[in-house]
């Protein structure tokens, strides 16, 4: 069962993002290190995605007045293609 909770470990969440996005960063020569990712996600509404108690991803939301925007959705590679991000 998939459940959500406020992110408990921002550094671990940033690492997940870095791992998922590394190929993109390298291909497009984006110079993002973990501290940059932590800085970028700290101001967002961050949620862990859990499966059977294990953190398997993150959802990041941004709010503007009365609207909410999905800023980022990351799912650990071993859990991708299972409909979790759908």
From TrEMBL:
InterPro entries: Acyl_CoA_acyltransferase, GNAT_dom. One of its GO terms (molecular function) is acyltransferase activity, transferring groups other than amino-acyl groups. Transmembrane segments: none annotated. It holds the Pfam family Acetyltransf_1. Residues 5-86 form the N-acetyltransferase domain. This is N-acetyltransferase domain-containing protein.
